[in-house]
## 1
Amino acid sequence: MTGFLARICGQRPWVTVGAWIVLVVIAGLLIQSLFASATTTELVLSGSAESARASQLLEDRLRGPEPLVEIVIVQSDSLTVDAPEFQAKVESVFHEIMALGGETVVFGRNYYQENDVTLVSADRQTTIMEIVLAGTFDEAAVNVEHVIDVVKEADAANDFRVLVGGTASISFETNELSQHDLEQGERFGLPVALIILLVLFGTVIAALLPIGLAVFAIIVALGLTAVIGQVFELVFFVTMMITMIGLAVGIDYSLLIVSRFREEMNKGQDKLEAVERAGDAAGRTVLFSGVTVVIALCGMLIVPASFFQSLAVGAILVVIVALAATLTLLPAVLALLGTGVNRLRIPFVGMGNLESSEANKEGFWEATTRVVTRFPVISIIVIGVPMLVVTFFYFQIETGLNGVDTFPEGAQTREAFFVLEEKFSFGLVNPTEIVIDGNVNDPQVQGAVAKLQETLSNDPRFPIPPILVSNPSGDLALLTLPIPGESSSRANVDAVTDIREQYIPAAFDGVQADVYVGGVTAVAADLFGVVDSYTPIVFAFVLGFSFIVLLLVFRSIVIPVKAVIMNLLSVGTAYGLMVLVFQKGVGTDLLGFQHAEVIDAWIPLFLFTILFGLSMDYHVFLLSRIRERYDQTGSNAEAVSYGLRSTAGIITGAALIMVAVFGAFASGETIINQQVGFGLAVAVLLDATLVRSVLVPASMEVLGRGNWYLPSWLAWMPDLRVEPIEE
């Protein structure tokens, strides 16, 4: 099928190329007109989550949509709020913000209006203003830029320090930092990938093809995301996901096709025959890899949280588009180029034919295979034991959510966090909301509320007493409780968990009322619960699917068991290294990363689905060649040697490109991108080197013919081999 498709596109190259150009132009227009409204920084869980039910009750029966409050801080090192100069500064900043108009700001208050002492710090050198923004969350996250501009201008004017912090400003700055990291990743990742391709191919034209295809795939995927985002709002990180995965798989897949095309051309075939052969051979591997990655990514769609589903949608879209472009656009371009694919040759570089197994019988990979297969048990111990030791550190992982306090130094909202935390409480920005659904005038309910308030006030984790308000109909009440510290930190989540599981049940035992806890911290707590609940389900889905597919492809029950074990070893080692680097600080300064108290709770599950899909690419590519040779010769040792030397060059090159792309994104300023990029880069590097070059051949040597064992009761299964038998 892939060979036939390649031939059709190769016979009509201009039609195929023209269709893709039109598609890219349409996607560009969609991105320009729709993408801004397709994404959000708001974390949304399914309606069954307790925090979601609390939010909906408040919106329906108390206050409408949640007010988006920004806290503006004015601070002096020498003056107190009693000084006329201090008052003049506060009123000047307040006036400028309120002058932004009703489309940006709907309400504001400051100390000098109401003489509210809660708006002044204990040393009277800091005061805060409460500013309520207009519009929805996403509208406010855009319009808050005007408030930030006023604050920045006021901060630079004289000796006063002026800062702003709040849900909208944190969202705005998160977008700004992510955009910076995205641009930096592209700025470094693309050139490094191009250099690797130039070394691999030795010609400029051949090296540029994978880059161009990846860019096409990213643009089209972003255009599709812009459309989908109009119906299902996607988390902003989807842009980074599409770019990162698009560059990696787009270059990876096209590398396989281009290298196979050049091999066939070197054999003397004409360009259409070479296109068809490349599509038939390497195209099968690409198709299998793409489908495998997509199905593995579907594991994240199972998780009822917009964040996971957004990441899955973005990654799935770009893989599908990259797959389609590789199987249609690339054959058309290769048919147009023919021998021109080798133009602009670079002297002294280029590995030539990456898949030439016979030419490399005395090369590095052949020598490596001989050593590994001669001492297979020692090889497994030397490589496997250290990987297991590193994996052990995964069991010391502390998961959470890295919040505004981990933003890069100099970030406006990060500075505001520390001032608020020192002088007031950052909990004022994102207070926890305890919603009581019941007859507020019932003495039993009132007694339960009073008991809960007393319990909370006696807990040193809640130094600011909760404030109680009720709706006019008397059937809903709200306790607003500011909790010091970063809203999504593990300490705050633990505090909310105690409120839910201990304080509320104790206070409302036997009382006719339903009590829910909402707010940012409660959302984080619900997210942690979702991750804990769905991780086994996702693991079972991905592992089960991988096992079944490998069983069908290789008609062996041993191969899929080993593949699952080795993929888990790669992922586990990557997890352990993340804990060592980010949590324990090993090599943090050397690598330029931030130290973190926690690994973001969503990252391990995300990495697992991504890496399992990507690693299947290399595993199948290697094992399909080994199985092909084994079927021809019946010699396990010869098959392993042939498979490794015939695929090692291209696997190593593809892996280095992925490492370069992921590593470039790991060089960003935000700790989330550092953790994701590092985890992906390390796992791919380990998988394509130590696992594929040492553990796979060593284990296959130990097992011998047992590698291909298939129980007789499974003999009915179809043969779904990926690589066609060479003629």
Note: The first helix runs from residue 2 to 11.
## 2
Amino acid sequence: MRLPLRTAGRWLVAGVMGRLRGRSRRLPDREAADAWLDARARRRPPRAAWLAPFLLFAGLRVPSFFEPHWYTDEAGYATAARAALQGRVLYAGIWTNKPPLQIWTVAAAVRLFGYGEAGLHAFTFGSGVAALAAVAWIAQRLLPTRRALLCAGAAAVLLGLPFFDAELALPESLLLAPATWSGALVLEGLRTSGSRRWLWTLGAGVLIGIALGYQQTELADAGAFGLALVVAPQASAAEVGAYAAAGAGTTLAWLAPAVRLAGARTVASALVGFYGQYAAASARGPIGLAVLAAAMVAVLAGTVLGRRFPAQAWMPWLWTGADLGVAALIHRPYPHLLLPAVAPAVLAGASLPAPRVRRLPMLAGTLVLALLALSSGVESEALLAYGIWYRQLVAAAALPPPSLMRALLGPQTAADVAATRFIRRAGLAGCPAVVWSADAWPYLTGDLSLELPTAPIYNDIELDGQAGTVARVRTLTPPVIVVSRGALRRWSELRPLLRRSYSLAFTREPVQVYVLRGRDEGC
């Protein structure tokens, strides 16, 4: 006969207790055994155990402070931030399709620490610590302690390692702190009562407004949190209104200065028109969109059906579904699209097992969204580099040289460093230049003046087209043009101008530096 697990445990405990007390093998009464088992289950790890996830996260993030300049989007944000610090008006004098807080935060890092990756990654390290603190705070309030610790540990690993580019100065990395705390406050608000709920909903609204200042896709989280407050029986209409008003007011606070300086039409074109075109360019076909819509409907149906359960049983699943839906809809191979889903996913996973029938639509819909979002992938290149870096650190008992990480992250990184050294040796630093490459780092590392509307070059081509961008370069006739072979093959209309007016001055695969013929020394 197969015994239930608890009954077998009770018999084992009873036998041990009898032996320790010098009694016969007779079983103690059921209540005594149950009381002993329950007391063991209630034993909590020491408070110091909560330091473990944060120490794990910090240890995993160490290589991020030694990364070279390699990620193209970081270069674009840092270049725009430098231009803003030099007085160019965001969206008018320097173009970007990101909300202002993204550029202002990178500008703060540039002002404080320069263009080094360590300074940029100090900000994302702080954002990761804050997000991990939100996960730990809400997990220990909603879950048994050991499960909460496991939840925080899983978040530390997923945020500490570069699975989803969490170490890079990207919008998703920087919005992680306010977005995760906003969700945590909504969860806390749904489990409290009385006047304190006003504080949680107001705080959640302010924080989601801040998160929107980094990336437009945070509208998904804003909607998910609002929906959670609407369907939860314990939340009142006034509290929903407080959340919405706080979110709208915070959004207006960062949007109004940009609109005043650049104009409403210009800002709307960058943040709404261009980003909408960007998302639509890679959207799934009719069948994929239909599956995506059905999965979202299933998540929403599960939310409505389960709304009378405790909030921790359904709200993290709604939150996870919203973030996975964004990645599935944009449908591009960018791992950072999955980063906002990390915190809610570990909280949702911690609410398992024992799904109830009314939760099955939510679980099924979230699973389908996760499968659709797999197109985002993970950052295998950086993961491999981190693994080798850790191994070298242990083997040599010393920090690996910077050249190791440059070599691990590809030839473009090392070639950019060599090209920058040539530019400075040749007295070309400070010259107006065009970096005809997906990698815009030479603008910063070589102290070259950006004359085009934005960087990297693919953004200029999106704005003006290839012919229009080449015509602009021909009109500018910059003293220096830095090209990568890949970009020159893809956007080849620049070749005639290079052959006619420029001389090849430096090459290291895949980077070449061209200098205007007849140029006097210096700029």
Note: Residues 229 and 240 are 6 Å apart (CA to CA).
## 3
Amino acid sequence: METDGQFFYHPLENIEDVELFYEATERSHLTKAIASDRPYTYWTIEMYDQDNGFRGGGGLGVLAADTRRIAEKMGVPFVTIVPFYPQESKQVIKDGALVDEHIPKDYRDFGFNLIDKVYIKCCGNLCALEVIEKRFKNTRILSITEPMFGELYSDTSGSDHRLYQEVALGFGGYEALKLVGLKPAIIQLNEVATFFAALARLDELTSNGMDFYEAVVYTRKHTLYTNHTLVQAAEAEFSYEQFERYVFPNIKSLAVKKWLMEKFTNGRIKLSSVSIEIAELRSGVSKLHARVANYYDLAGNKVKFKPITNGIDLGKWVLPDILNSFKAKEIIDNQEMLAEDFADKVEQITAQEIRELKVNGRKILNEVLKTRPDQEGRILSFSGDDFIFDFKRRFVDYKRPDLPFRDTYRLRNVLESHNAHYIIAGRIHTGDENMLKKLYSILELVRKDDYLRDHVHYLCDYDEKLAFALSVGSNSAINIPIVGLEACGTSWMKDVMNYNLLISTHDGGVADASNKSYLNVSGADEHEELDNLLQRMEEAMAIWDNDFDLEYMVRLQLANFLPIISGTRMLKDYLDYLFPV
């Protein structure tokens, strides 16, 4: 077995020896393994980094982009392996209907260089994939692409095209790494769509002569599976016949092929099951998520996840004036790490400062809104005195964008008491007819009410630019997922950092701190939760009117959530977990 340029052989007679072998080997040598030619490799089916040509589907992609930027700041040799999708969709409202416009993209427009081509086998054909690369200081983005690759999440989950994209990322991406002369110190699988990267590594080790069971141990030991969903049963399945056409042709080792064949149940396979089998290291993205995620291995044992809560790149998502203020007060340092006495230093933040900085953020919001008409085609502009609630997050059922609209009479009264506005911004995945109907229902309720029509605004084509603008320009953020269904979420983190008052259920990463750390929404049923939500909205507006209350709430949120929000903390937690000294 290769470890840091040395070879360590330990013959394994049967599979029972694998766990004994793992227990007998030290992982401390991996602290020496990260280097420019042996980087931390982060595999993801999506990334949200529009400056570099990537438009993701939601928080998974935002996290991927943030993690690379944080690695760059920390000086960690790091490679993100992600497909470059040659087409993306933009959502617009035409004649009252939300429609997708499809826009072609050229990687050369974003500073990528073509390296060469690699090949995978699919349906009896040899498929050529272009390998493109963009380098930064100590990090790089390595992508595979081809003209017919399609959009992110094109077709349905479990479809042939989706499997092709995932196989291309795994096998093609692994070949791309070799093409540029890199070996992975660690493979982090960012959700199950990236499973084939670890499979490609297992196949290479075995094909190059390593004993199969040693190769299994080595691959498992150097692979981290990061799970972002709570219920295994909700994931898509693929058939044996699909694997015969797209996966098995790319496996050289008969032993690896046999190992994979044995993972099917009734001719079907879930990638989560084999991701669990191929990765010794497994993480969940919040404390609550790691505790309640309902996953089982193929032997029927409950899977344990290491809790490493997501964080954000503060330099990307925090108003520069606010970030500079944090540094001037020595709440954080230039690496965005917290001072030991940060909670005490947060007490220096004043209501006057909060209000002045939010005025600056409001100017940024108004500038962005010049190109973002609402559902009525209006170009919005808000004064510094306008109170704005926002609901900005992926438009899916469990996040409950419709909850406040289940009683439009009371919602109107709440908003009217302070002449407040409510902004909805969330992307609906193409083909999600249920959420499209829910959006139209909300907009119809708004249209029927004269006051709500002027004070509730839906902004389509939600993206990272609008996400930032709303975080810095709004007063209060609404985050109300059904408790037990949110893995982490990071939109709320941006709100807390930008002095927004957080109104939230106690779920996901929010639940890492006490429910007294923010304006908590709770109740025995959804009727009670709605009552509580509207009360919390009234409280938020009252808090904003009072300097003492505003200081108290902003300081409370920061004191409790700053240790959770820090992206530097997140990556440090991963490094400590993966490469213990």
Note: Residues 166 and 187 are 15 Å apart (CA to CA).
## 4
Amino acid sequence: MKKRIIVFLICFASNISFAYTQSNAINLSLDQTEALPKENIFVHFNSSLFLAGESIYYKIYCLNEGANTLSALSKIAYLELVGENQNIVFKHKIALETGVGYGDFIIPVTVNSGNYKLIAYTQWMKNEGVEVFFSSDISIINPFQSSQETILIDKDADQPNNTNTLLSLNSDTNTLKSINSNLLDIKINKKTFQKRDKVMLTLKSKNDESLSGNYSISVKKIDALHGLTSKAPSSNAYVNHLVNRKQSFKKINHLPELRGELISGTLLRVSDDKPVANEQVVLSIPQIDFILRVSKTNQDGVFYFNINEDYDKQIAVLQVLGKDAKDFKIVLDEHIPMDYNNLDFEEFKISSDYKEDLEQRNIYNQIENGYFSLKPNRLKEIDTVQPFFGDYFSTFYLDDYTRFNKIQETFVEIVKDAFIKKDNSQKFNFYVNSLNPYEQLEKPAGVIVDGILLQDFDELLSYDSRRINRISIARTETNFILGTKTFGGFIVIETIDGKFFDELTKGNLTNVTLFKPQPKKAYYKKVYTSDDKLNRTPDYRQQLFWEPNINIIDQEIDFTFFTSDNTGNYEISIEGFTKNGTPVSIRDYIIVN
């Protein structure tokens, strides 16, 4: 069965390419997608109640419907926080690796107190509608907001039914309901800890194979407000909820992003604002390891790009290959908001009796934010992107040579195996020598400056070469093909300040802001040694530990983290799925005195 699905995916990808280049409509029938698995999303997040200034940490699990195994179909998921008035607090695009991805978001002080929904989905799920999206209630309290009418109840009014479950600080954790798993055991070195104490946590399999899977762990303080909101959903409860869901495709309007992030737009003619077919649009993401793509517009002027590499720049550059950019207008598609009018929000209310608890929590939160620079989450380095034409044959760092003012002189005196000459129309072009010493390539080389394909060389020829950092040469025995255009090699130029196009392009390129995936992070983990336990830097962390991406293949795995100066009860929440698709939910509690 797996082999059939893999073969189908290959054929499906080919059909997608055909559909993208030939028509704006999706030329795929329901029968053609019958073997393609539907998807579900489960989100493990660290709390269902936040104050402005606190962070939502989340882990996304994208699952094949029915089997609940991690999906290899979609490479992108979307997560949104939506308010009762349909306003979207944030919208994240998350890259999925073998069905999982993660991120975080700091609740801004501009967000009003009230009821919200955390919603997650993939493009493929949009064909079934909002009803199949992951959705869970979140409550937000903004202590900086002058009016709290939306969440405040009168003292004389009936109290919420769940007020009798509220916790007081340092209460016995035996009164809290733990959740155990018949697959995994959780072991903690003790139940009660001192401030800045070491916690040792072990996950151990109850049989030979059950531990193998993908999981996430959150350790966060629960306080007197804990019982006011519904609990964040567990993977086990979520899977049980899906049993009764029967939703089928009625129409396919959205293709899965199975080869990476999908970027689309329309090419219009400036003179009449009509779509232009059969033109090639070039997308450049200018960074040191630049990304370059070419797409041909279909009969409706629509183009598509698939990006499967990580990138750190949010600005991309679009241009029409081989044509004067002034004759065209390029419009990038925006991520269209979903219709959330039918969402049913949980009613969150709070009494003024909790004022002191809120003030204390807010003070601790402000202290932590004030010392954030000492406790940062670290961005992971993105993988090096291999140039589409392969490795560079040679690179010339101009600081290693006597510098010349002009580009022509630089190529004559420094850059070997590349040269500049006039063509039959008396225009200057750049060329590189063939790797075959007995053959001269007739096609001009492509020139890329600061990660962007250059089509008009006049500005480069007059550019001060003392502002160039390096020049790299890519050579071949035949030719390189980019779209339908053939190049006899590539010359890649990197300026010192990276501002060549900012200063000189005269508006011939279209700059667009990308809705890019969230960067990958390594989350901060505080470590205390015997020497620095008396460190006077305040430590009032509520989130003691967050590890979103745990791939387990052994029978036992250990974790360590340290408590803070914030005393009280802490919930250990473990969520995930075994390699066979069995959901795992574990809850346990510790006390910090």
Note: Confidence is low (pLDDT under 50) at residues 1-27, 160-171.
